[in-house]
Amino acid sequence: MAELFAEQQKIGNGIRFSFVVQSRRIGIHLHILRDCQTSQEFGAMEQFENDDEGYAFAERPNKSANKRECLEMEALGEELTALTHDRLMSLDLPEKLLSAVQEAQKISHGSARKRQRKFIGKLLRNTEVEPIQARLAHYKQLSALSIHDQHRVEHWRDKLVAGDNSAVNELLESWPEADRQKVRQLAQDAKKEQALAAPPKSARLLFRYLREIMLQSEDEA
């Protein structure tokens, strides 16, 4: 004679319903799977033999957590789709995932892109995403540093154009390798362009020169 015991246990974002059948040889496995895109549930059942006890498990993930994971993976897929070719190739993605991302980059809008986004999300749910996320975080950090450097160069360019020799002296204190005469001449020419509402050719040249010496200084540090 077999006895049946049932237990409900919360595990992570899911709920596990455990059924223990106390018999010597026969047990049943019950699996419930939920599709993220269609919200349909699929069941599978198999019989197995056990020397002591049979166990049957039904595990049903929390619906909101399941949906959140789907959306997170789709968002990660969007980040991959936005990468340049070189950065995408540096991730060493599985071949099927890489092909799906490259295909998505060719689709600009519409239902086809939506389907491809969901397909990429599905692939990512079966992929180890931690290394991918770490690399993307690194790329974001590089972009943030690049923006910071650009703002710093713009600050010095505007200060030199609006100022006088004291601004040039201050710049040389921080970057002594800068050419004093070149900086002064470009700043004066840029100031004249502003007064005449002319195209900012000299201002652009000054920006490029300042960026060059600042980046060169950082590389040597």
Give the SSE map.
Elements: E1 3-11, E2 14-22, E3 26-34, E4 41-49, E5 54-61, H1 63-81, H2 85-90, H3 95-105, H4 111-124, H5 130-162, H6 165-174, H7 180-196, H8 201-220
Antiparallel strand pairs: 1-2, 2-5, 3-4
Helix pairs in contact: 1-4, 3-4, 5-7, 5-8, 7-8
GO molecular function: ribosome binding; rRNA binding
GO cellular component, one term: cytosol
Subcellular location: Cytoplasm
Short description:
The protein has eight helices and five strands, in the order βββββαααααααα.
List keywords for this structure.
single chain, alpha+beta, Diphtheria Toxin Repressor, domain 2, 3 domains, three-stranded antiparallel sheet, 59% helix
If you consult CATH, what is the topology of the largest domain? Diphtheria Toxin Repressor, domain 2
Return residue spans where pLDDT drops below 50 for at least 5 consecutive residues. Answer: 1-35, 37-59
Helix/strand-derived class? alpha+beta
Relative strand content: 15-25%
Number of domains: 3
Order of helices and strands: EEEEEHHHHHHHH
The total count of strands amounts to: 5
